[in-house]
Amino acid sequence: MPVIVQLVGSHRSGKTLTLTRVVRALRRRRLSVVVVKHSHHRIDLAGTDTDRYARSGATAVFFASDRTVGFLPGSALAWARRLRPDVVLIEGDHRHRRGRRFVIGEPAASAALAREIVAFVTERSPRRTR
C-alpha cells in the first residue's frame, strides 16, 4: 500500500513547486512516486472522441498527445495504486480528503513544507531509506 499525500492550496500558492521538490527528494531516496494532478478542466467535453468512448462503456479512456496524457472515467487514485508506487502525491482536490493532507498558503513556504512532507513519507514508507 503506497503512502498517500495530498497537497491543497489556493491558485498560485506553490503546490506544484512544493511537490516537484518532494518528487526529487523521494527519487533520491529511490522511492517510486506517482503524482495525481487534480484539475477543474475537462477532457471529456460532450461530443469529443474521449466522451464518446467513455459513454460507450470503456473501462478507461486514455487521452494522449505530444504534450499531455489523461484518462477517464474512474478514480485517478485507483489507477495510480495499480502502478504499485511507494508514494502517491495528489495535488489539489479540496472536496475530498485523500491520505495525509498538507496545506500551503504561499510559495515562500514551499521549501519547509517539502521537507516536512518528505519526512512524513520517509517515516511511513515500507522501503524506508534514510
Describe what this molecule looks like in 3D.
There is one protein chain. With 130 residues, this protein is an alpha/beta fold. It has a domain at 3-39 and 75-124: 3-Layer(aba) Sandwich (Rossmann fold), CATH 3.40.50. It is 33% helix and 22% strand. The chain contains four helices and six strands. A four-stranded parallel β-sheet has the order 2-5-1-6, sandwiched between helices. Strands 3-4 form a two-stranded antiparallel sheet. The model has no long low-confidence stretch (mean pLDDT 85).
- DSSP strand tally: 6
Would you identify the CATH H-level superfamily of one domain? Answer: P-loop containing nucleotide triphosphate hydrolases
What is the string of SSEs from the N terminus onward?
EHEHEEHEEH
Share of helical residues: 25-40%
In short:
The chain has 130 residues and is of the alpha/beta class. It is built from four helices and six strands.
Distinctive features:
four-stranded parallel beta sheet, 6 strands
